[in-house]
Amino acid sequence: MSGNDLNVKIGFEIHQQLNTRKLFCNCKSTLINRDPDFIIVRKLKPVQSELGEIDRAALQEYLKGKTYVYEGFYENTCLVELDEEPPHLPNQEAIDIAIEIALLLNATIVDEIHFMRKIVIDGSNVSGFQRTAIIGLNGYIETEYGKVRIPTICLEEEAARKIREEKDRIVYRLDRLGIPLVEISTSPDIKSPEEALEVALKIGDVLRSTGKVRKGIGSIRQDINISIGDNPRIEVKGVQELELIPEVIKYEIERQKHLLEIKEELNKRIDKKSFKFEIYDLSSIFKNTKCKILRKALNKKEVILGLKLKGFAGLLGKPKDKIRFGKELAEYVRVRTGIKGIFHSDELPAYGISEEEVNAIRNLMNLSNLDAFVIVASDNKRAREALEVVYERCLKAFDGIIEETRAANEDGTTSYMRPLPTAARMYPETDIPPVKVSKERIEWIRKNLPELIDQRIKRYMSQYKLSEELAKKVARSEFFKFFEEIISKYKLQPKIVAWALTDVYKELRRENILVDEKKYEEVFELLNKGLISKEAIPDYLRGKFKVEHVTVDDLRKRISEIIYERRDYVNKQRFKAIKGLMGIVMKEFRGKIDGKIVYKILEEELKKYLNEGR
Amino acid sequence: MKLVRIKKNGLQLEGYLLPRYELEEKNYITIKLKNGYNVGFKLDEIEVEEIGEKKIKKAYLSEKIKQKENLPQVKIIGTGGTISSKIDYETGAVKPALTSEEILRNNPELLNLARIDAEILFNILSENMQPKHWIKIAEKVSKELNSGFDGVVIAHGTDTMHFTSAALSFMLKNLYKPVVLVGSQRSSDRPSSDAFLNLYAAILVAISDIAEVTVVMHSSSNDDACYIHRGTKVRKMHTSRRDAFKSINTQPIGMVKNGKIHIFMPYRKRKKDETVYVDKTLNEKVFLLKIFPGIDKEIVEKIVDKFDGIVIEGTGLGHVPEYLIDVLEKGINEGKIICMTSQTIYGRVNMNVYATGRKLLSIGVIPLEDMLPEVAYVKLMYVLGKTKDYNKVKELMLKNIAGEISDRSLYS
User: Fold this and answer.
1) Quick one: pLDDT at residue A1?
2) Is B215 a residue whose pLDDT tops 70?
3) So what CATH class is B73-278?
4) B residues 88-127 closer than 8 Å to A (CB)
5) What is the pLDDT of residues B318-376, one digit of tens each?
6) pTM for the full model?
7) Cβ pair A99, A86 in contact under 8 A
8) Which of A88, A550, B163, B166 is most buried by a 10 A CB count?
9) Which of B237, B238, B219 has its CA nearest to residue B228?
10) CATH architecture under which domain A552-613 falls
11) Which residues of A touch B192 (CB under 8 A)?
């Protein structure tokens, strides 16, 4: 089955940090990795909605007394982040950049920007809400596969960074809180993993075209929404590498397909109503077990509980399967109860659990060939909780795919994170007056829109005769403006300059050498004067040699002197003398001028001497 | 609410038409989109078409909250301000929200502390508070305490809360139960509001044995403890922080932390079988005058002429420019009362150190020790309500009536 037969629908939510000061105060948008200067401790309380209701689950959490610890730095955290001062007026530069991005995405700009409070009480926003505003509506992007709609482009404040989670408290760092963030939401118009990658690349290019977005790890984040047909939607968070996007989507499609297959099979096998919560204490069966994990649990006076899973035999998956329902059950148990693992009958006997033990369980639970079971070891209360979680999840398997937020893993798979949040409650931010966006302002931004990277790539290919690959690299690099400057300033081959600014840059960065424009300028000047060869560029940038005030003329003069001084040797050896002479010349010039150039001049001079001389 | 469709260039949108806030421009409209966002459009750039109507749902209230018997009874009196109001998100208007039901629904943890009975006395922002309001509050407090409540909590705007606390400290006579003023610096419609902890701590103080007028507010930026400030020794010292209220020239009476009261200073204890009454004659012809370089002599002359009493917020140890001295002397000779406090806020006035001070003393300016200017202002109103006799006024102003004067200047 290909993607299209399944009616796969994919949409993105892309978050990009802007390279300005913070959105509602004048703090720098920098991240700091040392011990914080100060710490404050807060609580967040769920508040009544417009309907007078309070989210009971959230209230329970509050009553349990969860505290949030915020780490701050004097240099980039002020009273605004601490929710000790009302927000200042929004950063106009950030608004302009957001408008620019919205225009590049063909959106209509609102006449008046209204900041809203999106209630978030996981502590990641000190205030308990995230401020967000729609800047542009009804945008779109064209790809090879067709048009993808972009209903909204928002400007919002970045949340605090989670540092760690402890039992009753979560520690956040405030440096990131308040950095301006542009959120681009596409419609679920994307139909294949390949198209998704294309869309992500295109939108990424648009963002980078502005030259005003932050770069580096975490500065852009894409959440992917994936659904099959009319089934519930799955949100995958935290895909770091663009290249992983197709992998994650392919995995997710397979996983969702698998859930549909399980649904079909289960309903064929049994009636959902007959799927009951039946748990058994299996501790006595395992009293002499060779399974280390269970042994350890029993030694700690913990219990081993089992849950009968009627109709689930073969549906939980063998360890070799990439996609297996058993793994999902384990993830649910881990997220909800903190218990690290479970065993299920499809993978047993194994892990030291013997066939006799498995059979004893099957007998005790009175299992048929179609039935399965799950085992968990912990204290009685938690073990029971874990099995309740397993039961609930298995019950939902009769209905197929369920709404979830999942995390992307580095290997392209996904794992359960939390239920999909219900629609966020949204209130007006009454501390910030609406921001008018005049026609003149929009037109001024429109007139000054940057060249899109896409256009730039094409221009580099035609104007500078760069290959598509190299054009892409340099057009997307932070040096693109510098590249053009260098080309117009010196008579250098564009492809060499482009190579030096991209491939060489990357190579040196791997060696932890960061080259800046000043250093590049030096090397291009030398190259232009013929003082180094293009092959010597990386070594020069590595600082392996220096070019001092030696001109080619100086060198030529000295070389002819040396030839004359050694004329006996030269006369005897003829052209073969070049080897020995090279050594002598290099003794004087090593580190001052590129050896390739030395060789070239020496060769010329030697030929001249030999031709003229005798 | 009206459901509308608007068109702008190629854009077509549906949403609810929201009322504009008072001060917003009229040629724009605000639309609430289905995704919850509000956006504004300029009327002359768009076409608007009405396509439906939405009824505003009435607030849904679940089962009535049952309060526990056998707990102390606390009266909460709402006077306005951030702590006792909420925003109507559709109109942007601020409404009072202080029914017992609402308080308990939002703060169920209070159910284990006390039986709560809340009432809105009036609803004004504290910058609009006037001496007549202090009297109303004092009368209400005495009525509720005498009718059997174990303590009273007054929800108050923070801007002038320390004026009200001072006024109540002087006016409530024979106070034998706690009277606690509480406010919030961040509105209670936000999850991060300081109102919840402040209110919890205030209730705890209201059922304690601290039979004084106190202000209970956050002690630091953390949501973990509140200070119990004496009503005559407290001042709002920050525009926005939740720990804006500080005890000046003294320690707070104590602190509420982890549901317990920790005491730092001596206080008046709760008594049984007493009756509180209100001493409410205030002379409102009192002026609080801040001294600054270049202050206009004629204006000061007019002020001295118009008012019965003046509290000067002098510079440093208690000074005014020399050119004002004869103005003040003339006033005192005509029977005006002139008192001296310091604009440094912290510290005690001492007018024996410099010639200007000595001169001011010699003409009859009354130095008010370490009393806060605002407290002195309220106290002078209270004292001038009883007598205008210079010697009697001086005696009363320098007598420690409600903890407004410290006999020692603590190092802290």
Assistant:
1) 42
2) yes
3) alpha beta
4) 89-90, 92, 102, 105-106, 108-109
5) 999 999 999 999 999 999 999 999 999 999 999 999 999 999 999 999 999 999 999 99
6) 0.85
7) no
8) B166
9) B219
10) Orthogonal Bundle (1.10)
11) 42, 44, 83, 126-128
| Neighbour count for residue A396 (Cβ, 10 Å) | 14
Please answer whether residues A171 and A69 qualify as being in contact, where contact means their C-beta atoms are separated by less than 8 angstroms. Answer: yes
CATH code, B2-53: 2.30.30.520
Residues of chain B with Cβ-Cβ distance to A113 below 8 Å are: 39-40
Token digits for A107?
A: 């959106």
Q: Which helix (H) or strand (E) holds A501?
A: helix A494-501
DSSP code for A353: B
Polymer length of chain B: 412
How many Cβ atoms are within 10 Å of A55's Cβ, its own excluded?
17
Q: To the nearest whole angstrom, how far is the Cα of B106 from the nearest Cα of chain A? A: 7
> Hey, of B21, B27, B34, B38, which one would you mutate to test binding to chain A, going by the most A CBs within 10 A of its CB?
B38
DSSP secondary structure string, A416-481?
EEEPPPPPPPEEE-TTSPPEE--HHHHHHHHHTPPPPHHHHHHHHHHHS---HHHHHHHHHSTTHH
Using the structure block, give the residue that is written with the tokens 């968070």: A237
> Is B344 an annotated catalytic residue?
no
Q: How far apart are CA B398 and CA B383, in angstroms?
A: 11
pLDDT on residue A124: 93
Q: At what angle do helices A439-447 and A92-104 cross, to 10 degrees?
A: 70
Segment 138-157 of chain A within 8 Å of chain B by CB? 138, 152, 154
B159 assigned to active site: yes
DSSP-assigned letter for residue B27: T
Residue with tokens 């004329």: A567
Spell out the residues 6+ positions from residue B58 whose beta carbon is closer than 8 angstroms to its own. Answer: none
Tokens 């009322």 sit at which residue? B19
Structure confidence at residue A51 (pLDDT): 45
B163 to chain A, closest Cα gap in Å: 23
The residues spanned by each domain of chain A are: 8-266, 276-397, 453-542, 552-613
> DSSP for A217-277?
TTSEEEEEEEEETTSPPEEEEEE--TTHHHHHHHHHHHHHHHHHHHHHHHHHHS-GGG---
Which CATH code is given to the segment(s) B286-397? Answer: 3.40.50.40
Q: Express each pLDDT in A211-238 by its tens digit.
A: 899 988 889 999 999 999 999 999 999 8
Q: What is the DSSP letter of B308?
A: S
**One fold for both B2-53 and B286-397?**
no
